[in-house]
Amino acid sequence: MTRLYLSNDTSARAAGAERLAQAWAHAPGVELVRTSSRGAFFLEPLVERDGPDGRPDSRIVWPNVKAEDLPNILAGIGGTPIGRIAFLAEQQRVTFANFGITGPLSLDDYRAHGGWQGLERARSLSPEAVIDELKTSKLRGRGGAAFPVWTKWQVAKDAAADQKYVVANADEGDAGTYCDRMIMEGEPFRLIEGMLICAKAIGATRGFIYCRQEYPAAARTLREAIAAAEQAGWLTHERERFHLEVFVGAGSYVCGEETALLESLEGRRGVVRAKPPYPALSGLYGKPTIVSNVLTFATVPSILARGGRWHASLGTEGSRGTMALQVGGRVKQPGLVEIPFGATLAEVIERFGGGMASGARFKAVQVGGPLGSLFPASRLDIPICYDAFSQAGAILGHGGIVVYDDETDMVELARHFMAFTADESCGKCTPCRIGSVRSREILEQLQSGHSRPGDLDLLADLSETMKAASLCALGQRAPYPVLTAIEHFGSEFRK
Amino acid sequence: MSRQSLAAVLARHRTKPPNILQALLEIQGALGAVSVRAVPEIAKALDVTEADVAGVLSYYPELRPAQPGRHLIRVCLGESCMANHGAKVLARVRAHLKIEVGETTRDGRFTLAPIYCVGNCAVGPSLMVDGDVIGRVNPDQVPALLDSYT
Predict the structure, then answer these.
(1) B101 and B39 in a common domain
(2) What is the pLDDT of residues A21-44, one digit of tens each?
(3) Half-sphere exposure of residue A67, counting CA atoms within 13 Å on the CB side?
């Protein structure tokens, strides 16, 4: 029997892994093991075999496999040692260290690769000591707002309440990002472990994972993982049961904003709440609630297991640890890149993205999803960290990096972004509700050749109002991709 | 809409406070859509106002007041798919099915909807047909791909 490893991740399946699994289901001499994905999606479907010493880091891999390649794989012809895949070898994986190696729902695999060590350490400490570890780590929320994680935990811990909640924001709506989906599908126990550590720190007995409906496989895997963890006795808090549930959303982007998410979780329209009070004090059903992104929770177990000081030793002054970047668009090597903060945008696009896809020429790159700024070729020397991005008026967001080629029509792209905001605005505050529609209309007029003099000034004026007066990041950030498109590609707007 | 199954779903949602979104998602799961005509009965069963129910129903793009076609084709309009010229995929789907976004083919086979990112950015441009994600879609493959669904 030859054991072959093949990813069961949605993108690996979409790239052809499922076709291979079906074709080889009854192949003699083959034991097919489904794993998480390495995140080197340009190589998917990727098939792996154990190397000479049986260790995961010595596996032999075959990229972009077709069903008829099986005889060669079984004969050991043409494979590459995993260590020679530069895209992977040059990363510094922490949160994604086990990806491509372990079975997503195997508690044995999780345990054997360091799982639950963070939780066990947390349970040997006082809540205050757990929060101190987070404080030392200088971990900032990975969902986009980059708020120091420990301060929220401290507020929720200090609040007196008969019920507290831990909520994972799995409404990964920023287009161009999928690292949360990879975690939920590939190592769901890591998310659960992070949530349990938070529960221990703040004293919560209930948790929810708010998963977007666009991720059916993630929701399914999470439910199975919760059942397995429960059966194995992990879902407890101080000898009480920790109730953990998956709640699937209904296609609203703004529900990724924490207060809209809580409204939606309570079953209402996903409309943003005015802050303060912050959810850490008054969140789900008015109770102290920690809402954090999936990647943030998944980062916590390593911090507890290896220590806050270790985490703080990685990255840059204001941005400690590693960041999961999702490099995509028109690059040669799209995929997940986990490296310490500090590399420049150019390095990431060249070294990991492999430069432009065949025949494509660079025009712009957008970082941080549909609310993120566009950068032209002359601005790629910016280091990837919160401070540099914030000084540039940009956001790192959830780590999405989308490269556009020179066929991209910037006016159409700008209109596309504003139409998206107009569609997704929850309608609670006027600047976002009306501003996005009027901005879209101005861009449509421009596109159809019917713009009036002063339209771009009006757009700039509207943008300033949206930035200054909107209630949440959707309205505050929506003008940025449009304004940066005009700033760097102005001639296309002034035809 | 089968009244019996509506009542059966509602019977599971007599919690306090009721979760309107969850109830509507379950009704849609059981019946395929949430008809606007069912709003009064749902409101009564959940002990909320009709406006509460209608408000939630109209807010979420994935809650549908009418049955979609046998296959729901969702074309990804996320940035990464746009960067990979997913607009050409959408154009081919529209041309082949002769419908616009939001419409259903006359034979009831397909409903076309947009989707803002299916998290398949590295393997785009993407289509989601029913629950399945299809990656690296070449516009020229669209007719054959769609014709494979009956």
Answers:
(1) no
(2) 999 999 999 999 999 999 999 999
(3) 11
